[in-house]
Amino acid sequence: MILILGGAWQGKLTWAASHGMVGPVFDLKDGWPEAPVRCCRHLEALTRAASDRGETAQQVLDRLLPLTQEAFVISREVGSGVVPLDAAERRWREVHGAVLQGLAARAEHVSRIFCGLEERLK
Prior knowledge:
Blueprint: E1 2-6, H1 12-18, E2 26-27, E3 39-41, H2 43-52, H3 57-68, E4 72-76, H4 87-106, E5 109-114, E6 117-120
Parallel strand pairs: 1-4, 1-5, 2-3, 3-4
Antiparallel strand pairs: 5-6
Helix pairs in contact: 2-4, 3-4
């Protein structure tokens, strides 16, 4: 798995395409993929929906990992701003951060993309 992180509109998908990502891109805004994927994006939408349903980060990881073992996984960074006052928003950020940590631990490569430039983290 290759994990790609960065802010909105920073070139994450373009970077993936220029670094070997092939095949269709599954949009996690649409829910869970039914079979393993080669690339998925908007992990933050998936973790938000899971958090809203009361799922834990471990539950998300248990379901997501088998589907993304050979994939590019693309996610926005959501935890670098002001801590939200709303408890549900804080919970989502905690779930999302824990999912990212779990994916990063298992990924063979982790990069942060900013202004189209890569910062290799692992």
